[in-house]
């Protein structure tokens, strides 16, 4: 190992290490690094003393400033609730007719309802409420239990086939799987149901099947869907004569429904959303339905 010496180019001393003629300089650490390390240390110690930091056995060191983020969050939430109370109280206290006649309240319904719908309903019913496969179009299609705001609010509150004690129930029986109808009758009633929404399907070739399907429908389906297939709000059975289908209106989808049955699910929102927000959502959906007419 060579002795250290001063490098002629840089002016720094060498360490005495040399590899293939290359000498290692003993370059000092830049002063700015020391300044940064000292500043960071001072900041860390100061922060630890002033702010909540070290845990203890039963508690933690709360810092000389006494900062409490939980208290700040609770205060922020309380301030938000107080700020919204100017309209949430009106939503809860006023009847639907009064609210819908108040432009300022309805502006709040449209703005806040859009956010609530996106966060809680759009995943199933779509961002615009026009439905997805297996989930109904709640803006344009006839509603199964009624489309006045009070009825919509009740559906949101208790759900459909949900865990709520007062839930609405709706179920399509499995006429084929449970051997309530033979396969030939399933096919005939499917043909008849197709003609309810698309009369052009009826021809001379399938007139006999349609006639027999109508009889099967009257004996097995009319009790829920009505004699003409237009649905019954009392039973929550959908209208079969329009173009709105939850599971599909093609022959294959209808046959699957008749054979295997259907049982949709809408969760109860009571306990998840406040009464004010449930009522506001009902007003929002009713408002969208009115605008779509």
Q: In the CATH scheme, what's the topology name of the largest domain?
A: Cytochrome Bc1 Complex, Chain D, domain 2
How many strands?
2
Kindly provide the name of the CATH class of the largest domain.
Mainly Alpha
Structural class: mainly alpha
- Poorly predicted segments: none
Report the β-strand fraction as a percent range. under 5%
What is shown here, in short?
The chain contains eleven helices and two strands, in the order E-E-H-H-H-H-H-H-H-H-H-H-H.
What do you see in this structure?
It is a single chain. The chain has 293 residues and is mainly α. It folds into 3 domains: 1-67, no CATH class; 70-167 and 266-292, Orthogonal Bundle (Cytochrome Bc1 Complex, Chain D, domain 2); 183-260, Cytochrome c-like domain (Cytochrome Bc1 Complex, Chain D, domain 2). It has 11 helices and 2 strands, in the order ββααααααααααα. Strands 1-2 form a two-stranded antiparallel sheet. β1 (14-19) and β2 form a beta hairpin. The longest helix has 25 residues, at 69-93. It is elongated. The termini are far apart. The model has no long low-confidence stretch (mean pLDDT 91).
């Amino acid at each position: 190992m060579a002795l250290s010496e001063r490098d002629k180019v840089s002016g720094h001393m060498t360490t005495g290490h040399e590899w293939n003629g290359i000498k290692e300089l003993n370059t000092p650490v830049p002063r700015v690094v020391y300044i940064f390390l000292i500043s960071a240390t001072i900041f860390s110690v100061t922060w630890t003393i002033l702010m909540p930091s070290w845990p203890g056995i039963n508690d933690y060191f709360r810092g000389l400033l006494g900062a409490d983020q939980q208290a700040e969050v609770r205060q922020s939430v309380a301030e938000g609730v107080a700020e919204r109370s100017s309209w949430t109280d009106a939503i809860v206290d006023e009847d639907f007719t009064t609210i819908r006649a108040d432009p300022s309240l309805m502006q709040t319904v449209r703005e806040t309802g859009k956010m609530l719908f996106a966060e809680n309903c759009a995943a199933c019913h779509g961002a615009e409420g026009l439905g997805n496969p297996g989930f109904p179009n709640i803006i344009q299609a006839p509603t199964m239990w009624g489309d006045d705001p009070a009825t919509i609010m009740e559906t949101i509150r208790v759900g459909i086939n949900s865990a709520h004690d007062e839930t609405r129930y709706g179920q399509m029986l499995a006429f084929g799987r449970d051997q309530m109808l033979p396969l030939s009758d399933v096919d005939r009633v499917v043909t008849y149901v197709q003609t309810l929404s698309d009369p052009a399907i009826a021809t001379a070739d399938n007139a006999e099947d349609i006639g027999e399907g109508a009889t099967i429908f009257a004996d097995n389906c009319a009790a829920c869907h009505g004699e003409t297939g237009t649905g019954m709000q009392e039973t929550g059975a959908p209208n079969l004569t329009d173009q709105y289908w939850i599971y599909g209106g093609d022959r294959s989808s209808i046959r699957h429904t008749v054979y295997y049955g259907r049982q949709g699910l809408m969760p109860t929102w009571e306990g998840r959303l406040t009464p004010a927000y449930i009522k506001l959502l009902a007003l929002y959906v009713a408002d969208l339905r009115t605008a779509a007419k």
